[in-house]
Amino acid sequence: MARTGRGHRLGAGRPHRRKEPRGGIAMNESTRPNGAARAEGPQATKLMHSLIFMCNKSNRVPRTIEEADKQRLAFLKSVTADDIVAACKQYVVGQEDELRRVAEYACLWLARYFAQKSGTPENDLPTLNALHLVGSTASGKTFICRQVFHEYLGFNYHHTSTASITGEGWKGASISNVLRRAAREQSRLEAEISVLFWDEIDKHTQRNSRSPELSFNPLTDLLVPLEKTGVYAIPEQYNDSDEPDLLDTSRCLWVFAGAYEGIGGRIVRKRLMDEASETYGLLADAQIKDIAGMDEEELRERITIDDLIEYGMLPEFLGRASYIVALKSLKQDDVARIVCGTPHSLEQRYGMLMPKGVELQVTDSAGRHIARRAIDSSLGARMTNSMLAPMVARLAERARKDERAKRARIDFSRKENRPEGLLLDETDLVLERIAL
């Protein structure tokens, strides 16, 4: 060790900075609840997590770890699907029925979770392995789950894009890497529930697999932890430590989501046609005619497990993720409400970025125009954000230079019949000023 000289220890002279907990909330002896002053490590992290959650749900601030846990458990035991829908419907647009189905699954999963905690034998309980969301790009799969499970119920949320996941033994991120992170998070937050959200699961079909060998499909590495309820030891050969990480799967709520592009017209329609052809007479002709006239959204509403298997998904995996919720694509009016018209609209969120004292307004005509352009694109509702950003940036810059600015307005009412491809010009961006 290098000498530091008399009176000069390593780090001497530097002010000691106390690290704040995640979320930026610092607790000292004057602000820490009674009984929490000695909480350290995972206990302190768990305290902060419970306190923040219960402060958001109740007007009464818990004073101890035990009180916070008790309030949290009481909330989760008593929550209903109606409670979840009432709290989340102001944020979720165009998917009210689908939101309710996700909320019902959450309540059913919680009922099973608490039944198991109370000592009910595993064999006496039904299997609720995973929730499976099927919906086109930008239909709200990720957003609904985050609102229900993370924002409202307060579960830990792990989001993974499986498009970049490889099978064990291949170079790159693997299933065990994701499970290991979740296991270590569990060890920090004792008795907390984790949501493992696996996006783009449809990218790993047997027809799209990098290898013809089933063992290299990443989904096969999920079969055991999905089936097992209890402590699952992540295989040591893929571990970077001496001891295996342990994942308590009874505290894991699994969610899988995929777009399954083209499944309606290519697979569901064919199955419905085959079923209708088994009927004879005029009834069969009428059914075939109706099926031929169905669009992609109507066909998606009739998706079955067999259709997903025909698409190329592993039957062994689908047997463990069989609670399917099919989300419909958002319509133009729904996307317009995302732009302006809800408490969580882009208009409200971008308004937070305007200079102080300047209000942002997106007119109905602008919302409809942006929604129409977004629907026509391949990105759907996600396109609205990239369309609004340059407009707001330009208005905000003009407002900063004008001390009399009071309202920044995006208005397309004068340009409804604009040439195709023209998004905006300076006449669309109106800066209202305070009259002298």
UniProtKB/TrEMBL annotation:
Biased segments, Basic residues type: 1-20
GO MF term list: ATP binding; ATP hydrolysis activity
GO BP terms in the entry: proteolysis involved in protein catabolic process
Renumbered residue ranges of the record's region Disordered: 1-41
Domain of life: Bacteria
All residue ranges annotated as the Clp ATPase C-terminal domain in the record: 330-421
Keywords: ATP-binding, Nucleotide-binding
Protein name in the entry: Clp ATPase C-terminal domain-containing protein
